[in-house]
Amino acid sequence: MLLKKLMEAAVEENPDIPIALHLDHGNSLETVKKAIGIGFTSVMIDGSLKEDSKTPTTFEENVEVTCAVTDYSHPMGITVEGELGTLGGIEDGVGSGRVQLTDPDQAVEFVEKTRVDALAVAIGTSHGAYKFKAEPKLALHIVEEIHERLPELHMVMHGSSSVPQELVEIVNRYGGNMPNAKGVPMSEIQSVIPYGVRKVNIDSDGRIAVTGAIRKVFIETPEKFDPRDYMKPARAALAELVAQKMHDLGTAGSADTFKPQSLEDMKAFYREKGWI
Ligand SMILES: [Zn+2]
Hints:
With 276 residues, the protein is α/β, with parallel strands linked by helices. It has ten helices and six strands. 45% of the residues lie in helices and 10% in strands.
């Protein structure tokens, strides 16, 4: 209820910004139902993992749970993101810890069977700040192959923090300990945007920016103890990071260049397709 009211306030206070609220890594139909119940307008069902968010599923199990979610969500105009293949790394307890790259043939079959609006693909990215021991080798050709066969498909890249070394350095300079943290270079992400990548999930970079800013205050002004005070530079650091990412990914300033789709618009879209 608290979350619902916070979201409603954000929407009300920002009528000029088109806002969608998206559930990340939903682990079951039950979770999806709960999210939609409190006002989420878009959901992810991560059917690449079982309900425990750890054990990889079979292709058939993934299709089954994803279909259950699209069947439930589309009649309400709610868009659905699925996932095929598994990412490396573990985020908030989500992840099998091993990588299984997305197979382009399976991707075509998966999208046709499940009618997902967007597909998260596994191309070697990884959740968290310690993605890679050496320089990352991403299988970017997988995105190109899928795009060639499904040019309309919106693809999603999870685990795409770049772990900027200047932010890691701030954390370490002010008493942190993040040795060898490495991420996905922004240039690699930018290189696949023309091939249908429409959503890039970045979380760790924000965590590192916030942590660095808080650590700096603690070390430089140890007398401070009011979170309302020491959280200010942290919020500013996060805002700066998000602005930079939006700029780098080519989305900054484009809120008024497309027409937002309401849930009613999406219902009409699904009806036209004969999906509902
Ligand atoms: Zn993710």
